[in-house]
Amino acid sequence: MLCRQLRRLILPMLLVVGVSGCHQPKVPSGSGSSARATATQPANSTPTHTRAIVFVHGIHGDPTGTWTGEGGSPYWPDLVRGDRTFSDADVYAIGYPTPYTGNRNDVTDIAKALSSNLTPIFDRHREVIFICHSLGGLIVEEMLVDQPKLAAQVPFVVFYATPHAGSFVASFTSAFAGDPLLRSMSSSGDNHYLLDLEARWRGGRLSTHRYCAYEMLKTRPLNLQAIVVGGAPGAAKELASFVGGIYVVDPYSATYGCDSNAPFTGIAADHIGIVKPTGSQDPIYILFKGYYQSNPPTVQPSNRVVHFDKVLCAFYGEAVQGSSAWNQDESCPVPDREHLDPDYHQAAFQCCGGGAGASLQGRSLPAGIELGVDGGHYWSVDFPHTPSRALWQGDSFVVHTYCGPEPAPGPGCNVKLKVVGHYRIVVPESEVK
Q: Do residues 310 and 264 both lie within one domain?
């Protein structure tokens, strides 16, 4: 009986956090009950910059609707891409399973899936910056605490209405929705997950800055006729407060644990509207832009590139008049093969002389290898005569040398070969004395 009465009071709250925003969130592609996360970016964005900006939606959001204005535009990631301030960054919006997709994974599961999905983004960029709405902030925090190497690449995160100390609404809805994500957001005093997450963040001494914004407008119920008072103790008082609107994430929770040397900024929007800027002059947008400008990319120490050449091998073969031809594979060990200059390519070389021919051309030679060849009478340098005809055999460079003499009293022949390695070594500036 009590449970049924509570449902009558609480289910309208589910409408507030689940439907407010005037559209039904789109289901991320490939989502469902698994913890798989997805990452998307505008079609004309390519991973070519030193920084990445990643948008992470909240519990009832998605990579598109969360960041789109009420009239269908603008789309915040597109605003960022069109702003010269962010010309050094690629922009991504990620998705993860939510209650709408039948989620049964907790924050830890989704954070692990997210870190796996974002690995290519971290690999391609020196710095990754996150814009997080609501629960998305807890997921990012969990990922960074669990992956300190990734955290080292994150100079700052901007949290918009993230329940660092829990959400009043989630405290009630988690009892009925059965979604582990809602339980993680609960503001009840026994929410050990949030306490542990904050303790792990502080204990990890992460260098990532945490900047916070909180909602200044209360979220109001969408359908007052649907609200009825049950018989639970205190229900009428709770209802009276709720009809006037509630903070889905109150200012204390939204700013708990964030950098104390940065202002905690209130945004004149409710929980849904706090991540829907109307344009580049909207305080929502200006807040993130200001933090971006105050955290310029770290200056990486320049590296010193050293180029040098080294004669690796020299071969000589001859045959006197009337004798058998010189006909042999030559194997040249190449030390430090991994340091051969990938940008050096021998354009052409004289493969043969005296009317002899060969299929080995300059374009066939591997990067970093140069051949100097010469000969007398009838001679050539060609691919090795092994079945594979491979120029590399292990860490040795192999070619075939040939020369053919004429019968007596005709001339003999010779062939000369020099193998040169062109090396490129990158020396970190810190090691240059």
A: no
- Among 236, 264, 293, residue at a domain's last position: 293
Pairing label, strands 396-403, 379-382 = antiparallel
pLDDT in tens, 114-146: 898 899 999 999 999 999 999 899 999 999 999
Task: Report the CATH number at residue 208.
Answer: 3.40.50
The pTM of the full predicted model, rounded to 2 decimals, is 0.59
**Tokens 């979220």 correspond to what residue?**
219
pLDDT digits 0-9 by tens, 85-97 = 999 999 999 988 7
Residues 18 and 130 in one domain: yes
Residue 298 lies in a domain: no
Single residue among 242, 271, 293 that ends a domain in this structure: 293
Flag whether 207 is in a domain.
yes
